[in-house]
Amino acid sequence: MTVAEPPVKTIELHAAQTRVLDSTSRFTAAMAGTGGGKTYVGPPWLATRIAKYPNDKWLVVAPTFDLLRLQARPTLVEMFRDTDFEGELRTSTNEYNLPDGGVIHFRSADRPERLESIHARAAWLDEAGQMSLQTWVAIQARIGLKMGDCLLTTTYYPKHRWIKRDWKPRWEAGDPDYLIVSWESIENPMYPVAEYERAKRTLDPAIFDARYRGLMTDLEGLVYPDFDRCLIDRAEMPEGWQDWEKYGGIDFGYHNPFVALNAVLSPDDVVYLYEEHYQAEMLLKDHAKRLRPGTRYFADPSAKQDIEELKALINEPGKDLRGCRIEGAINDIAVGIEKVNGRIRTGRLKVCRCCPNLIDEADGYVYDDRSEEHT
Q1: What pTM was estimated for this model as a whole?
Q2: 343: helix, coil or strand?
Q3: Is the per-residue pLDDT at 348 higher than 70?
Q4: Rounded to an integer, what distance in angstroms lies between the CA atom of residue 174 and that of residue 147?
Q5: 337: helix, strand or coil
Q6: Pairing, β 245-251 against β 258-265
Q7: Can you list the positions of beta strands (E) in 57-177?
Q8: Sign of the dihedral defined by the CA atoms of residues 51, 52, 55, 56, in that order
Q9: How far apart are CA 304 and CA 67, in angstroms?
Q10: What is the tens place of the pLDDT at every residue in 181-190?
Q11: 75 Cβ partners below 8 Å, 6+ apart?
Q12: Any alpha helices (H) in 147-264, and if so which ranges?
């Protein structure tokens, strides 16, 4: 009995896609203009890794479940069909069972904490520019045990600038772990040149560069344009900082995350923000356990009931929160922004990189031209 070999599927890649597929770096970013074929390169990149470890675990992540369902997942299933990698998609568990025992886990990044528990050999993040810095932090933990690779396929989105801030300097400095391949929409032979030229004529140049040229170009109107200057590693905290005056900030939320930031003020008037608690769908009594003794917290003054409830919780018998105080902040956003920028410009604000959610939000904080407010 003769068993027919599975047919070989031939795919055509343009030059930029080929550079991505040939990458030997652990971390590769495919930064392409819309319609440039960035998602198309994800499945073959993953297949080259699966071929070496056919019975291992793998991650495919999209910003939302809808994008996962409509873009990354069907692209992979279609490209694996009629190949040695064709397996079975189980939508109930969001898993793709490979023929040699491996499993591809499909996940969305809207809740980064749900990426935990899988130790993957490699991860493909589609539209990674829409994902938060916390997602990238979580992914590194998921592939760290096996020293796995990661591919980002994305257009540049200025709201989440961690690729530009964290990846680009390493790549430009020659770090072999990082590679960024960028290309324009029209490097895909199928993309209509007339549409590319129309967008070039009608769009803001910064938007066009990001959306159609694959460039990491930021829009004007960043609230904290020099925020990168204040970032430090936790190891850079000055000696004796634990004994300085302790301050914090609180923003209440349930479906939106509850946020508590912890900082110290040095004798020479430098604020060092060293810790964040950022968690959704947790009761106030559990958030109270994450506050720090001896800290003066300033909270959103509009949440009077929450402030009073939190005060009562930290004063319950048995709580080890001596000296912890909570009071309403002065809720003048414009004044607050100017004070923060003043500290950044004068070197009197330092933020530890162990606060990824704060960094991600502050880094992409922009003014809305229509309302002259922040977003």
Answers
A1: 0.75
A2: helix
A3: yes
A4: 20
A5: helix
A6: antiparallel
A7: 57-62, 88-90, 95-97, 103-108, 122-126, 149-154
A8: negative
A9: 38
A10: 999 999 999 9
A11: 39, 40, 42, 43
A12: 162, 168-172, 193-202, 205-212
